[in-house]
Specification:
This protein is of the alpha+beta class and about 300 residues long. It contains eleven helices and nine strands. Strand 2 and strand 3 form a beta hairpin. The longest helix has 26 residues.
């Protein structure tokens, strides 16, 4: 018994810096964090989760039961969650619209597309009367510019492909103004400051309990997703030399992979759907990890 007690105490001591980091961090907004839980854990395993599991999971992040129930109610009202009652228990899943949105976010998190090399220019008098969808930016009343990306939302008008000529103008100054790049850099900086300690934690092979590993991974995904989705993903020449996106990406990839074995054990043990416990892992979660491991090795 004494040996078990010592082992437990050592594990709690090893976890304490990680737990302290979670405790010190500002609690996330409940609706957005619940969507993160569904996108990272629930959706790839079938999509439905018991409210009690959701409440327990959110409690680790400073979100009490009242906040969670209110957030779920608002997400249902906004058409982002759908609920079903089975016996005395309520279960929720992402709506089709929310699933489609997170599938796009998941692609950016787990299989990011290559950095674009050039631009698209749109000329149209119709641009004067519309709010441009991101990442389009207005250069003049009838001229808009966007990175040439496969996932770009089109706008009506004459489209031209453009490439900057070296030595002509300061593209980084234009980009910083049109796409609010200082704010995006701030989001990446906040992510690195909040999660940078995971590098040391994982490098020392500290044994984390499954519950703590999942809590750390969920916050990692939540904060990185916020930063990455705010990034317009422009050609590299449009960013300053000290752009923090690559460092943030490397941290996300290494930490996600390093936390996942223990984190997924907690999912399999504690997360309940109408059919019972969610699977610790399946084809979709293995595919995500394979992509990240390949990226880390490359």
């Amino acid at each position: 018994m004494a040996e078990v007690a010592i082992s437990d105490a050592q594990e709690r001591s090893a976890e304490s810096p990680a737990l302290a980091g979670l405790a010190a961090a500002e609690a996330p907004r409940a609706p957005a964090f619940i969507v993160t839980i569904y996108g990272d854990v629930v959706e790839p395993r079938g999509g439905m989760l018991w409210m009690g599991t959701l409440i327990d999971c959110c409690a680790r992040h400073g979100l009490n039961e009242s906040l969670v129930r209110t957030a779920v109610s608002r997400l249902v009202g906004a058409g982002r969650l759908e609920g079903v009652r089975i016996g005395r228990r309520s279960y929720y899943r992402l709506s089709e619209a929310a699933r489609s949105e997170f599938r796009e976010a998941a692609r950016l998190l787990f299989a990011p597309p290559p950095v674009p090399e050039d631009w698209l220019l749109c000329l149209s008098e119709g641009l004067r009367d519309i709010d441009l969808p991101l990442p389009w930016a207005r250069l003049a009343a009838n001229i808009a510019l966007a990175p040439n990306r496969d996932d770009l939302m089109p706008v009506d008008g004459i489209l031209m492909r453009a490439k900057q000529l070296d030595g002509h103008g300061d593209l980084a100054v234009l980009a910083a103004d049109r796409w609010s790049l200082p704010e995006v850099a701030g989001a990446y900086g906040d992510f690195l400051a909040s999660h940078g300690g995971l590098r040391d934690l994982l490098a020392r092979n500290v044994t984390l309990s499954p519950e703590v590993a999942l809590a750390l991974r969920l916050r990692l995904v939540h904060d990185y997703r916020h930063a990455a989705l705010s990034d317009p993903r422009l050609p590299r020449a449009a960013y300053p030399q000290d752009w923090p996106a690559e460092e943030a990406r490397n941290l996300f990839v290494c930490a996600y992979v390093g936390l996942s074995k223990a984190a997924e054990a907690h999912v399999g043990a504690e997360f309940l759907s109408p059919e019972g416990h969610l699977a610790p892992h399946n084809g979709e979660t293995e595919r995500r990890l394979f992509q990240l491991r390949r990226e880390a090795a490359g």
